Every structure is written in structure tokens, then in C-alpha cells.
Amino acid sequence: MAGAAAPKRQDTRKFFENLSGAGKSIAVLTSGGDAQGMNAAVRAVVRMGIYVGAKVYFIHEGYQGMVDGGDNIKEATWESVSSMLQVGGTVIGSARCKEFRTHEGRLKAAHNLVQRNITNLCVIGGDGSLTGANLFREEWSGLLDELLQQGLIDEEAAQRNSALHIVGMVGSIDNDFCGTDMTIADWVFIPEMPPEDGWEDSMCQKLSENRADKKRLNIIIVAEGAIDSHNKAITPDYIKDLVVRCLGFDTRVTILGHVQRGGTPSAFDRILASRMGVEAVLALLEASANTPACVVSLVGNQAVRLPLMECVQMTQEVQKAMDEKKFDEAVRLRGRSFENNLSTYRLLSYRKADSELPNSSFNVAVMNVGAPAAGMNAAVRSAVRVGITEGHKMFAVNDGFEGFYKGQIKEIKWGDVGGWTGQGGSLLGTKRTLPGKHLDKIAEQMRIHNINALLVIGGFEAYVGLLELSSARDKYNEFCVPMVMVPATVSNNIPGSDLSIGSDTALNAITDTCDRIKQSASGTKRRVFIIETMGGYCGYLATVGGLAAGADTVYIYEEPFDIRDLQANVEHLTQKMKTSIQRGLVLRNENCNENFTTDFIYQLYTEEGRGVFDCRKNILGHMQQGGAPSPFDRNFGTKVAAKAMQWITRTLKDSYKGGRVFANSEETACLLGMRRRAMVFQPVSQLRDETDFVHRIPKEQWWLKLRPLMKILAKYKTSYDVSDSGQLEHVTRVRPKESNTSSAI
């Protein structure tokens, strides 16, 4: 006899199917300067809006188009945003508009919107654009009254359009210090961190020391608006003249200018923009007459909505603090991410004299384990230099655990890691060998070199290896030291972390290849491309790459499929070929199904699509691992490794008793991972239950929530859980001190 049924847990999830856009009109505009990813945001707004039943309009040429009206405001179709993802800048145009700053200009704009019953506005732009949008919203009812009095609209139109809802997306290249590839700069000048008096002599001395160390190339980055501590401008030409006069070095000035606005948007920009575009539509659908204008954004991996004017006020406070020479306050107001970037740069930018360094007498080893991942070298460089700055003696282990038990260990110094940031692969060497069968020899090498702490940078083998070492602590005292792992793998399949070093570069490789493949078919109609990606059993690369590249279908292990699904996908593409978009893109994770191989899917699509479309296939292979790391991976690797080294320093101090280091609690063998909004240190022993060891993936993966979004943007009917969509929050000014276990990145 069956036992009593367990009580049903209340389902608190919220699905977007309950949010209808029927009868609503949404307009999207881009304003201010061009920024990569704007088109991805426009595409997402248009397709999500149409998907929920709303009418969606383009407003061409920003606020100027809204004021001028006419053909500048056009209804968008699903097909009209095809092929926008890979285009830089903004295809709907962006223009500065003096007229919109006047009351008369805003009155014209209001009239043009009311004529089309547009009461939902999505504005993609910078501070000025968003401030103008909020003013427009505040004046809206008064503008309607004027239009009514002038006989330009009737009472019914005024009632029907009584409330204007505005959602902003920040489309600006002036984000913060993250926008600079901070990890290659010998010297950086930014407005928020003016150099101290005498900086000219200090800089020239450092450049001279670099040249003496045989470093031939020096890079100095000067941000627009850089100043000294007396608010005097620091310009590239001033620095060039200074270097030539004092040192006689051949010096060139390159002003990047609008080159920074152009180019193909990265995978990260496309995904961020697509998620924000969908979130903007959700915010508009949920808005009531009393909802304040908001800005949608992502913090870590979490969608958030912030009151627009609080964001603008915060930016104005930054400028006020800088005008008053309160530079530390300006940095704090910029936000925690900016602050952390800056503190990491300070740690790594200048080598202290040996006499200035603390003497910790601790030896710390750093190693790479698993397959190569772009950004590993940036992480090693950061770890070595932060370790040296904190007084440790740093040791490099070559070729992972295999090199460890063979004794391939040597001291590594500050200059040894110069120039590592931009190099792909692993300069230390990395192998997949696990330590379990070589514990005696590894313990012996730790004893010989007196290793007091271990930093492992790598993939799934690094995680399993750390589990094996920490599990053997009862038998080997040598393993009773602080140990921390930093995830670095293109597959992004490590439990305890939403992101891994190297996965962004791999996504860019996938996205770039898909762009080229689609471009190759620009003169060919009715063609479908089937692309195989890496990732083992983890579908992260295929799914997120598919979202960034605009794929029609993505096959992964985590979402089982059968022959009926394949047939439905072929039928979907058949219908698509009847529209003006006569091109298809299908991604397949390498291990998604042992029977439905890439060849099988290619042959099935070829046969079933005969007479409607033809097929091509491409296996991307190891090109996803290679190449120079993306700016994101350089930045991420640098910051995460620096944070890991600071944890090692704290834990060494806490576990040093009786003249030796002894650390055997589970908290002293950790993985440092990104969880939603924060970087968190988690004991590897606690991550066991979260791991599917057979398929080498976490049991729960955050990115699976992106799959419905990908399907919606490809015009599939699907269910979309929006429980995690942004709730209105407030801009935080005063923050609690960080704990040892977590911090924002």
C-alpha cells in the first residue's frame, strides 16, 4: 500500500505568460554616443515586445527623431531586427538633440507619441539621455493638457495615453575602469585617482628601471579627463614631452577616439544587452501609473531595476566629489566593482623595493591543472605579484600535479611574469593528471620546498584534485595548509561558480566564427549551418554562444530531446525560410546525445529540408581554447587570483601556531567562485553534493534559465520563469565591510 502523499510545495514561480502586451505600444530609441551592444538590446526589445503581443516602434535618430516624427517613428517587425546582433554601434541611429531640451521640443515629441498610442518608452543611452527621459515623463500629463487645449488631440486620446512608462538601459562606453584593459598598463591616469605630487619623477624612474630590466615596451594609458591633484589636466602630449625630455625614449601617442565605439560587439556585450532588453520589456509590462522610471541592469548574474533618478543623482555626486577634490569619495561612489578594479590595479602596478615588503617567511605554490584556458596566465601573474607584495616567497609548479610529484617546482619572481597577461594557454604548463595516485611524492615535494599554501588555477581536474588532497589530510600533515582553487576552464562546468576564467574568450571564438559563417551565406538563400561546440557534457558554451550568435536551436545534454523535437525544429526552419530571413543557425554541444551526433543531425536536416534549404556543418574544436584572452578574462583572472592570494595571506596568519602552519578544517580548502552578485569562498567538501561527477557538471546551473530567452528570441513558443527578474531596488551609498567569505567582484 502506498504511503501518504507528501504535501505539495506552493509554487511561487512567476511566468511571463501572465504578462500580456496586447493593446500596448512600445517604442525603443538609442541616444547619445554609439556603444557596442546597442543593437542586441534593440533586437531583444523588439522581439520580446512582439512576442507578448505589443506593437513595437523604432524611433530613428534618437530624441531628434521623436521630435521630428514622420518616418522617423516606424513600426518594427520580427524580420527587421535580423542580422543586427553582430553589428556595432546602433542601426536605428542616434543624435544629440538640442530641441528636446526645450519645452516646445518635448511638446512635439509628446504629440508624435500620442498619435501612435505609444506610452511605453525604452531609452538606451547615457546619463544625459536618461535624465531627459525622466523629465519627459514628469511633464507628460502637463504636455497632454497643452495638446488638448491646442486641439491637437481629443479627450479620448488624452485618457488612453494618460501615463508614460519609461525604462532605461545604460548604453555607454564610459562605463568605468573595467573598460580599460587595466592589466597591461605600466602607468594609468584616470580622473578618479590623481597621482601624488612628484609623479613625474616616480613615473620616469619606473620606466627607466623597466628599460634596465630589458623591458623594451612600456604602455601608459591616459583617460579622457585625467587630472593631477591640483585639478590640472594631464594630457598624452604632456607625458610624451616629459618622457622624451627626461629619458630620451622614443615615445608615440595614439588617441583611440571613436575606434572605441566601433567594431563588432563581444559575446558578453550581446548577452548583457539581450538580457537587459528582455528585462526592459518585462519592466514596462509590469509598470503601473505610480511606478518610477527605472534603469535595468545586471549585477553579477542578477537582473536588477534601479530608480533612474537615483542613478543620475549618484553620477552627479561623483562629479561633485571630484570637483571638491574628494577623490576617495568619488571612487567609493563609482561602485564596488570600480573600487575593486582600482585596488587590484594599485596592488599590481608598482613593484615595491625589497626593504618595503613585509617578510612573511611563508612559501606559496601556484599551479595550473586541466586543459588550457585563456586568462590562466593573467591569473598566475596576479597571484605571483600580489603574493610577493604581501611578503611571500612564490613558487611555480610546472605541468600540474604531474609536474608537482616529479619535482618541477621553482621560485618565481616579479619580473618572471611580465607580459603574461595577454598570452593565451598556460605558460606554466597544465595537465589533467589527478594527484590521488601520487600523494606520497607530492607530500615529499611539499616537504622539500616547505610549501605553506597552495593556489590551484584550473578546471574540473583542479576541483577533484583539491578534494583528493584535502581528503588525505588525516594521513599527510603536508596537506594541512591553506588551499584554494580558482576556476579556469572554457567549459564553465565547475560547481560553486557561475563563471570560469576562459569561458568568455571561448564564447567570443564561437560567436566570431558563427558571425563569419553567417556572413559567408549573405549571398546564398535558404541555408542552415550546424555548428558543434566543446564543453564536454556542459551545455554552457552552446547555449550562451547560441544566445550571442542568434541561433535558432541549441542541443545540449542538460535538456533531453528526441526525434520529434528534431522534426519540430526542422519544421520551424522551414517556416522561417518563407520569410525574408532565409538563413538558419543550429548549435550542438559535443556530448548532448550519443546517438544524435553532429553527422546524424546534419543528415537529418539535409534530408528533411530537401527542396527548402540546404545544410553545412562545422566542428569548432580546439580553436575555442586558443587565442589571446578577452579583456573580460584578463580582468576577471587578475581580480579573482588577487582575491585568492589575499585569502591565503589571512588564512596563513590564522593557522600559524607554534612555529608552523597547520590548517585542517574544511574552511581551509576552498573554491573561490562567483555566485550571483558576489565572490564567495566555499569549502570544496561542501560542494560534493552539488556535483554530478559522472558527467563532470554541477547539478544545478544558472544559465539554463537563459534557454527560454534564447528560444523566445528565435520565435519559439515557450514558458519563461521570470521569478528572478529584477525587483525595484535602491542605489546603495553606505556599504557594510566585506566579510572574509564573500565580496562583490
TrEMBL record:
Leading EC class: transferase
Stated family: Belongs to the phosphofructokinase type A (PFKA) family. ATP-dependent PFK group I subfamily. Eukaryotic two domain clade "E" sub-subfamily.
Biological process, per Gene Ontology: canonical glycolysis; fructose 1,6-bisphosphate metabolic process; fructose 6-phosphate metabolic process
Short name of any one Pfam family annotated for the protein: PFK
Reactions catalysed: beta-D-fructose 6-phosphate + ATP = beta-D-fructose 1,6-bisphosphate + ADP + H(+)
High-level lineage: Eukaryota, Metazoa, Chordata, Craniata, Vertebrata
GO MF annotation list: 6-phosphofructokinase activity; AMP binding; ATP binding; fructose-6-phosphate binding; identical protein binding; metal ion binding; monosaccharide binding
Keywords recorded for this protein, A-Z: Allosteric enzyme, ATP-binding, Cytoplasm, Glycolysis, Kinase, Magnesium, Metal-binding, Nucleotide-binding, Transferase
Gene: PFKP
Metabolic or biological pathway: Carbohydrate degradation; glycolysis; D-glyceraldehyde 3-phosphate and glycerone phosphate from D-glucose: step 3/4
Stated name of the protein: 6-phosphofructokinase
Domain Phosphofructokinase span(s) in chain numbering: 26-184, 185-283, 363-648
